[in-house]
Amino acid sequence: MRTGDQVVQGLPWRWRAQGTIFIIGGLGFLFDAWDVTLNAFLIPLVSAEWNLTLGERGWVGTANLIGMAVGAFAWGAVADIIGRKKAFSLTILMFSVFTVAGAASPDFVTFCVFRFLAGVGLGGCIPVDFALVGEFTPARVRGRVLAAMDGFWPLGATLCGLTAAYLAELGSWRLLMLTMVLPALLLFWIRRGVPESPMFLVAKGKPDEAKRVIDQLVAKTGAPREEWRLPELQQTQSLSPKAMFTQLKDIWRFDPRRTAALWVLFLAVFLLYYGAVTWLPSILKAQGYGTYAAFMVTTLTVAVGIVSALVSAWLVDVFGRKWVIAISAPLAALALVLFALQLDIDVAAKAWITLFGMLVQIAIPALYAFAPELYPTHLRASGFGWASTVSRIGAGFVPVLFGALLWPHLGLTWTFAVIGGVVVVATVIMMFNVPETRMQPLAERVPS
Predict the structure, then answer these.
(1) InterPro entries recorded for this chain (predicted)?
(2) Is 335 contained in some domain?
(3) Residue whose C-alpha is closest to residue 430's, from 268, 262, 251, 316
(4) Which structural domain range is residue 183 located in?
(5) What is the pTM of this model?
(6) Is residue 442 included in any domain, yes or no?
(7) Which CATH number is 189's domain given?
(8) What is the tens place of the pLDDT at every residue in 54-109?
């Protein structure tokens, strides 16, 4: 007899059932992307208002990304203890409130504090969101669905870019930040449209609630009813710093080679992505572009990711997660180096940066589909969260290091080449140390 979570993973895909959760999760991810992408457009705008040096400008992105690093491990652990639904709601509320509050910043230090606090909410949204959607998605389409959900990221980044280009003409970065009141409205739909993950409920000793959610999901999908059993109850865990670091120990004990490879891969890919996107408007303005033109080129770079996410969603189920990442990420790094080499040739530079946007946004959806599948239920959000934390810590210092050290002393070409070398090394480590998860069922628990 199958267990309840095996039943959930074997259900047919229906838009009125799993599709509703997918859309709500995707909208959360859309607003998450919107807020992160704000950094790129805020750097030239706030630096003009407060007359910031090149090194100081980097703190706009660094404060936010370091906050994301804190949020990624904290909220991933929280989600594995209080539940995916509650944690998802709280992360959205947090990054929305503190981004809006940042619009009232009287000085640069206060502004950076609010960007840090917004980042704490942002950092938690991604691992919690993907853990929630992944646990409701049938195994046969899970890779496709999780990769397709990443299409909401370039959509959110594109909407941010278009909004920034319009509001920049009005000279108001504060209005741009006020737009982030919109995610708070999503909370009402979350409360009504998203049930708690039955896999989480079983893991936390709530079998009656889990049975109710599973039965409702079976009815909504129209699947044949069958007898099934709940898996064995696992010991519940209270929320505390000790519990969070116990989860970290469990993640490494589960498979140290897998965890190490995943952390290196996350770090490398997001060094590449944030290093380019965060500074792209400033690079283009230094090249002589006007504010509107620089913002629109940056918007195009992230907008192509809408198509890339759909391509990635198809590729991960055809060729597997590992090969999609191993090919697209190094090629994205190469395109970025060629962009820097041909920056003075307008058409060529635009072509290379667009190609970079396409390739890196094929790699990232595949990576996001891959990571939650590598851990069992009670470590899924925290496993993803700690990997995301490592990437945010590394990428968090990129804006400051880029502006104060790398760009001024190495130049763009060598800066991007060094980061590209890190990406190549990370993909090789992944290929030899991480199993392919295509079409594999999610693990219920760590083997004894």
Answers:
(1) MFS (IPR011701), MFS_dom (IPR020846), MFS_trans_sf (IPR036259), Sugar_transporter_CS (IPR005829)
(2) yes
(3) 262
(4) 4-229+243-433
(5) 0.75
(6) no
(7) 1.20.1250.20
(8) 778 888 888 888 888 788 767 867 877 788 888 888 888 898 899 999 999 999 99
